[in-house]
Structures are given as structure tokens and as C-alpha cells.
Amino acid sequence: MNVFWVFSAKRIKSFSIIILTALMAALFLYVERTQLPVFSTSEGPQAFYRAEIEQKQVALTFNISWGDQRVGPILEVLKENNMKEATFFVSASWAERYPDIVKQIVDDGHIIGSHGYQYKDYTKWEDDKVNQDMQTSKRVLSDLAGQSPQLLRPPNGDFDKRILQIADKQGLSIIHWSVDSKDYTNPGVEKIVENTLSETTAGDILLFHASDSAKQTHEALPIVLKELKGKGFSFISVEQMMENAKSSSEEIQ
């Protein structure tokens, strides 16, 4: 018995859309998991977010844009664990309100990076406004920290090819991350630890928050540090990570 399969043009189109959507989803998941170390443009500016290194080294980073209650406990945890050279990406408008905390971060041996001034999405601004915000942030943080920041994490971590180029002209290296603790969602200490440990490999940049909205970070951080040290990991600065990296790149449109 012969069996004939008949497809209408409309049904073929529907199947095609489904297949294309599945392929796009698979590609997205693949790219997310492979995590190439550097985003770049064909002209050269790059955004660094992990290093291809053999040594079991990782870098700690913290974002701050609001409040003064969580930074102290986090700094205390780092001090108790003899940790230095974590990078604190600081919103400069926040830094103006809490100059003593900025000084404490620097005095404890950590690095101040720029997190913008107004904490607004750069990709939605015109070039002049982005330039002005970056420059204002650099000036404020230079005055408060005693040295001009070399590293920039744009507000919300959002950037594109244009932002890369503007930052490069100002001598700023954009730093993203490869492991997100998701501590800002306050999912519970155990979940923050799981989010971090399950993803961390050699060369990763870890993202935490020190704003008041991240209420559980200071409790999860000692566990994360202990577990990673127990697995043979050591901690270095983002700048050291960049120096040690074997970079590859992916073009940003």
C-alpha cells in the first residue's frame, strides 16, 4: 500500500518557523555555555569576561550603586579570608555620597572600577551623553580613590559595539562576567552558593553585588570562598587575569 504525505504551503511554512526557532535556541544555549573570553569589534575594542588559562584562578567582582549597609560586612569577609584585589565597580554618584566607603575599599587593597555615574543604560543614550557620563565618573572616582579607574562595567552590564568604541577612546576596558551568582535576586544563601560553584572554572570572573538590595551576599560569600579554595582555586585581580589571558573574540554588532 502506497502512503502519500501531503503538505500545504502554510503547513510547510509553520514547520520551517518551528525548526528555525529550535535552531536559534540551540545556538544561543551553545554560545552561552562556551563563553568566549572576549567580545570585540572588527576595529579592535574588546570587552573582557573570562580568560582561557590553565591555572585555577578566578577574579572576584562586586557592583555597587545603592546603599551603605552591605559593603562593610562584605569587606569584613574579604579581610577575614585574607582576600585583596577584588574589583568593586562603583557608581560614581553613589561614591559621592559615601566617600569614606570608597576610601575603605581602597585601603583594604581592592580596586575601584567605574560603574558609570548616573547608572543609566548607555545603549539608549547618544554618544555625547555616554561620553559625558564616563568622563564624570572617571573624574569623581579619581578624586575619591586617588587614581583614575581603568576598568568599566557599564550600568546593568549593557553595551554594544558603539559603547566599546567610546570606552576605548577614553582608555577604559569594559569588563563583563562569566559567572553570575544572581545574589541580587536574594534567592537564599544556598542558592547563591550553588549558582556560583556549579559554574566556576579556571579563568572565570565572578559577579556579586554589594548594594543594599543584595541582602544575602555577605552570608554566602564565606562559603563560596572556602569551597573554591578547597577545590584548589586562587584569587587574582581582573587586571592580572587580563594579562594572563589567551584571548579569543566574537564580533559585537
Protein described:
- This protein has helices spanning about 10-35, 70-80, 90-95, 100-105, 125-145, 160-170, 190-195, 215-230, 240-245, and strands at about 40, 45-50, 55-65, 85-90, 110-115, 150, 175, 180, 205-210, 235, 250.
- The chain is α/β, with parallel strands linked by helices.
- It has one domain (about 40-250): TIM Barrel (Alpha-Beta Barrel), CATH 3.20.20.
- Strands 3, 4, 5, 8, 9 and 10 form a 6-stranded parallel beta sheet that branches. It has a 5-stranded mixed beta sheet with strand order 6-7-2-1-11.
- Helix 6 links the parallel strand 6 and strand 7.
- Helix 2 (about 70-80) runs parallel beside helix 8, helix 5 crosses helix 6 and helix 7 (about 190-195) runs parallel beside helix 8 (about 215-230).
- The longest helix is centred in the N-terminal third of the chain and has 26 residues, at about 10-35.
- The radius of gyration is 21 Å and the shape is globular.
